[in-house]
Amino acid sequence: MIDLETFSVAFINIKNQKLRSYLTFLGIIIGIAAIISLISIVQGMQVFITGELQSLGLDSIFVEPGSGTGISTVVARTLTSDDIETIRGIQGVKDATGFWETSAILDFKGQQAEVILVGMEPDKMYLLEQMGYVDIIEGREFTKTDKFSIGLYEDFAKDTFDTEIKLRENVELNGKKFRVIALSKSSAFLSAFGGTSMVLVTDTVVKEFFGEEDPVEIIVMVDDGADIKEVQARIDKRLEKKHGTKDFYTMTSENLLEGADTILGLVGLIVLAIAGISLVVGGIGIMNTMLMSVMERTREIGVMKAIGASTNTILLLFLVESGLIGLIGGIIGVIIGALMALSASAIASYAGFPFNAFPSVELIAGGLFFSLIVGMISGWIPAQRAAKMDPVEALRFE
Amino acid sequence: MAFDIIINAKNVVKTYDMGLVQVNALNGVDFELKKGEFVSIMGPSGSGKTTLLDVLSVLLRPTSGEVFIKGKPISKMDDNELALVRGRTIGFIFQTFNLINRLTAKENVMLPLWFQGIPKNERDSRAEKILSDVGLGDRVNHKPSELSGGQRQRVAIARALAVDPEIVVADEPTGNLDSKSGEQIMQIIRDLHSKQGKTVLMVTHEEVLAQYAQKIIRLKDGKIINEEKVNKKQKRSVY
Predict the structure, then answer these.
(1) Alpha carbon of A328: minimum distance to chain B alpha carbons (Å)
(2) pTM for the full model?
(3) Chain A within 8 Å of B87 (Cβ-Cβ)?
(4) Assembly ipTM
(5) In this predicted model, what pLDDT tens digit does every residue of B164-209 receive, in sequence order?
(6) What's the number of CA atoms in the CB half-sphere (13 Å) around residue A368?
(7) Which has the closest alpha carbon to A165: A153, A177, A149, A175?
(8) At what angle do helices A298-306 and A311-350 cross, to 10 degrees?
């Protein structure tokens, strides 16, 4: 005998106790809004990071100095320029190149800014383009004859100084004149890690003028069709033999992805736990409201039983009512949660980290279903109490 | 006639456990309610008349003894069945009306029909017809708080009649009304018996109201002490 009428009667009952019902909704609203917004954000970030890492190429291996366990604050310089040549000779390696890094002061029309100077081998620049680190929109690629040449990211060129740095203009690096030969599109992934203050020069510049002989990172491209895991193992073996100790580590895009997934998964779990607690609290709120409501309506329950309402009818009536409280709270919670997620993604996009955090259909449906279930579970005990009432006692209840 | 006796109570005892003492509200009552009868139950307070009404209207299960509704023993029915049979067979009129205040007059009347699973449009038309039969055709969408006491009791009567029950049970139906409204209500109840052929069971402590019935049962200390026929010629309007 569950029909539309059951819902409309339940709805009238809820409407009749406005303030109390609103307060009860609040618990569920907060819980569901937290779940929807946080899960949307985590999912959005997951999609974004996966996409970005995949754009680095699934056929590249990164060789990094250090042990690879934990985040080292001091960057060890255990890789050498010689290692690049060694890696190039390994079976299954298509090509390899390195980054030489240092910091420098960039001077433009009397204004200064600190930059990270990234040196790269000019004839291997295509590797950086393939991996999306560099996307030249104005100017040209570096060549072997370039020395006092510099490449800038668009954002840096536009925003750092009072006047925009244009192509072919001169800047000074530690007192030496350099000419801007290339402007690159800013990469979202790099800018998220402060990478736009990176300035590209040739490796020779970093080595000769700054005395940084050794690369901070080596990037390896794998032959088409080669097994990336096998190539990674070969590099590990060869370099360890060469260095006599494992003072470096290698990573594939896949490794990075797994790492990101682990962290996001953990964040998601914590988020779910917190949201779960708030939903339990919300559920207790519903139970409390329903218990009070059953108490207040004792006489009415007696009347309904006298005029033919069965135990099951009363049970259903109160279960639908508490389920409806949960569901209404859930609907409002989903809306608020979606708005929170959208504003978070808008803020993040503004900060150069554009991920889409609109909740998926599954998440919305799940949130609504969950709120309904929380409502009905919370209403179970009060509904049972109402259903089991003795009609005579309930009728004479004052 | 198959169910000449609609409700039959055999040696009914109802004991209330009041902690240290046990109180026998009913102490071995035998009673038959025949189809088409109008019976008044009278007795001083504490005599068990309300308990008897509860037991006879199958709201309350006796401690011992058996109650049959249309020949069926209620001890063999579960609470759900009993509710359904009660809702179909018996219409209740209470002293305090017991309307649901947030529902309109029509919705109150539709409620027992809903419990019987009658479709919405039929509930709607039946409720409107019955309300206009009791003279409230222009009050269908009013809430109880917008009605006078007499009007509320008429809504309650309409609710009792909604499922077209064979029995109407009234518990001090005029107890909360002024004498004029009380008279109107008593006339409606009398008409239910005389014109519509309903079986009526009424509890009252007013001798004059009891005289509306054909038969008066007097209770004392949980026992029927007297059963008398009302002399029709003596019947008159009491107000």
Answers:
(1) 21
(2) 0.73
(3) yes
(4) 0.89
(5) 999 999 999 998 889 899 999 999 999 999 999 999 999 998 888 8
(6) 11
(7) A153
(8) 130
